[in-house]
């Protein structure tokens, strides 16, 4: 697939981003607050193994609801049972990224909750040096602090959201649901933003997304985002590059803003960071 590149300089790199979401439209009508099964531990970022795996030591949580994982190469998201590698390498990234937390996305049709995908957030080790001011804070305090996620987004360190589909989804349906959450977060979109969204949409429309498909949204920094889709294991190339800070921020805010579409993911990432910073 041809790589598309779009540029935007609408938002200053030094801008302070606020994750407060006042509009009721920012919460998708089918979004349901999911119960949280916390990640039992957080990787220690040691001895990266070549390619995708690393043997990381996990420290078991004291929470009775968090089973001890021990030393392993993956973490299982408890609701969907999807396994996430604790460390991986992605096209376009300069080094391995480590798993911070996992969660899932659920749509509600009538009164029936349907799991659509599991998700995991990865980040470059260097990002942790920007979070030391939150040392000693509880996971609950971190989850409720928008400044933490603003710092994560604005950090120059690479971070990536892995989405793993747990059911077959038509590409257009997937994009329409994502766009319903993204578009309201972009006030007064510029032509560059519209073009970026069009490129984003073109990646998904007309493409059947089978159960088990990997989708990676990778932020190289706060204004550059890579999109990789693979139905056969880890991706080997980048499908599109979007250089619109507004679109990049909106995508991050969908998952880590006040009106997150996956409360379980945000809670798990908060727990992982709190555990690491202890």
Give an overview in words:
By secondary structure, the protein is of the alpha+beta class. It is 24% helix and 23% strand. The strands form 3 sheets. The protein has an 8-stranded mixed beta sheet. Helix 3 (171-182) runs antiparallel to helix 4. The longest helix is centred in the last third of the chain and has 15 residues, at 263-277. It is globular and about 45 Å long. The chain starts with a strand and ends with a helix. The model is unreliable at 1-71 (pLDDT under 50).
CA-based shape: globular
Structural class: alpha+beta
Parts with pLDDT < 50 across at least 5 consecutive residues: 1-71
Largest sheet: 8 strands, mixed
Strand content: 15-25%
Report the C-alpha radius of gyration, rounded: 17 Å
Secondary-structure map with pairings?
Elements: E1 5-7, E2 74-76, E3 83-85, E4 87-88, E5 97-109, E6 112-123, H1 139-143, H2 146-154, E7 159-165, E8 169-170, H3 171-182, H4 191-204, E9 208-209, E10 214-219, E11 225-230, E12 240-243, H5 245-256, H6 263-277
Helix pairs in contact: 3-4
Quickly describe the structure.
The chain has six helices and twelve strands. The chain is an alpha+beta fold and 278 residues long.
Using brief descriptors, characterize the structure shown.
278 residues; alpha+beta; eight-stranded mixed β-sheet; two-stranded antiparallel sheet; 6 helices; globular; disordered N terminus
């Amino acid at each position: 697939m041809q790589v598309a590149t779009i540029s935007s300089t609408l938002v200053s790199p030094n801008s302070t981003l606020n994750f407060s979401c006042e509009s009721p439209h920012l919460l998708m009508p089918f979004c349901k607050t999911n119960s949280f099964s916390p990640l039992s531990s957080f990787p220690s970022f040691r001895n990266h193994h070549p390619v995708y795996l690393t043997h990381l030591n996990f420290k078991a949580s004291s929470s009775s609801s968090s089973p001890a994982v021990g030393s392993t190469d993956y973490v299982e998201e408890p609701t969907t049972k999807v396994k996430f590698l604790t460390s991986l390498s992605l096209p376009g990234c300069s080094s391995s990224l480590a798993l911070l937390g996992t969660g899932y996305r659920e749509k509600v049709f009538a009164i029936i909750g349907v799991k659509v995908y599991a998700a995991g957030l990865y980040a470059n080790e260097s990002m942790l040096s920007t979070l030391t001011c939150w040392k000693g804070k509880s996971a609950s305090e971190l989850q409720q602090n928008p400044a933490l996620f603003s710092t994560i987004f604005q950090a120059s360190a690479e971070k990536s959201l892995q989405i793993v589909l747990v059911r077959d989804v038509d590409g257009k349906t997937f994009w329409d649901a994502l766009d319903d959450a993204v578009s309201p977060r972009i006030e007064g979109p510029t032509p560059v933003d519209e073009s970026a969204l069009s490129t984003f949409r073109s990646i998904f429309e007309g493409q059947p997304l089978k159960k088990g498909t990997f989708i990676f949204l990778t932020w190289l920094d706060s204004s550059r985002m890579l999109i990789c889709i693979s139905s056969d294991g880890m991706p080997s190339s980048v499908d599109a590059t979007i250089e619109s800070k507004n679109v990049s921020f909106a995508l991050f805010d969908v998952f880590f803003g006040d009106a997150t579409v996956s409360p379980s993911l945000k809670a798990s990432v908060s727990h992982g960071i709190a555990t690491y910073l202890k």
